[in-house]
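chain below, 458 aa
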Amino acid sequence: MQSEHEALNARLARSGRAAASGERRERADRVSAIYRSVWLWHFWSGLVITPVLVVVSITGALYVFKADIEAWMKPAVYTVQPAGDRVGFEAFRHAFDSRHPDFELRFINVPDDPRRAWEGIALRRPGHGEAQTMMAYFDPWRGELTGVHPRNEGFFAVVLALHRNLMGGLPGRILVEAATCWCIVSVLAGLYLWWPRKKEKFRGVWLPRVKGSLTRLLRDWHTVPGMYLSIVTLFVLLSGLLFTQIWGLAYQGINLATGGLPSFLLDPPKSERPAEAESGRPAIDADRALALAREQFDFTRAAYSVDLPSRGSDGAYQFISDTETALIDHAVVFIDQYSGRTLLFQSEADMPWRTRFTQLFYPVHVGSIFGRTTQVLAVLSCLLLVVMALTGVWMWLRRRRPGSFGAPPAPPAGSAPRWLVRLTIGLAVFLPTVGISLLLIHFGDRLWQRRRLSRTSR
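prediction:
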């Protein structure tokens, strides 16, 4: 009896060990399937978007320091020397009108740096030829124009066009949006692949190695620096979605439908035109309007801008404080161009929280939110995207064997866990161009498979 009992215990122990071993294998297979799925996503997303990503990242890095580069390239246009008292907006208007009577100055941006020229935007007057926008620069210390050029010309006009749409119009803009969305996916996938799963060595995980094989060096410099700036990179990428064709319009549409936009954006206050104003001359000039606006909010403490109403129209002067930094108060004031009455004063606290949140997108995207520090971080993230994209392609070319594409092996069909499927669906909904891309890939693959089967059945 004792020997039978011992044999039974031995069989139970062996079956328990086999069950535990089976569970470990099943868990290992599941983890392997997840890893292979994420690696496949990281590989294909990174490989396909690399050409677009390199162009967009380099132009984005340049645009972060637009003001500094412009001042270096054309100091006579963009920089001024403070001397005495500054003249006002009307001096800018007069200097521009005397040289360009076919255009009307409609917008002036006043920088916080007194050594920087004022920037104006002018529109061609109705009946004076095709619509065109001009950029004008003004020295407020000497009261003279420093330069004028069409808005779509110049170095940074090309940089911005490449950054937004690869100079390809609407198709290019959608392509840039798709590359941005897939870059977000690739960065998230890269973080998952990097994430330490056991006690790893310090070098190669937390610090890139400088010695070893080229493959090892490429892997380290592809992974480790990007990990440290991954949060900054994701903020830069996500904030850029506001300016895209699909995600950006959907976001603003939801804000509009749910009351997330301030009323003055939807229905700007208008001036009341008295009968004597039919001559087209406003009752008060822009300098007087600024003085009245400053009774509500001191715009001159930092950078600000003013929208100049067209003479004789029902438009109003609009003063708005700089929104490129997070360390100052923001406000907007509308002044009636005839009576000088304050039509609207709205401080940042009075605006919907979603408006305040949306105002952060641009300063986050260009790195100006906390000054030079975040500008440098934004540029570093752009340059690291270039490095990671190029090193990724380099690693693929080294790993690829003759006669094969060199893509990571796909996991077995149906091996992806439900949470990964749900996460994929969530990303496809949150990033519509990712969802559209996945649908195109799915239907393209089915079409290719059908054609393949039809050929083999002949």
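The beta strands are 103-110, 118-124, 133-139, 144-150, 304-307, 316-321, 331-336, 342-347. The mean pLDDT is 86.
thats it, cya
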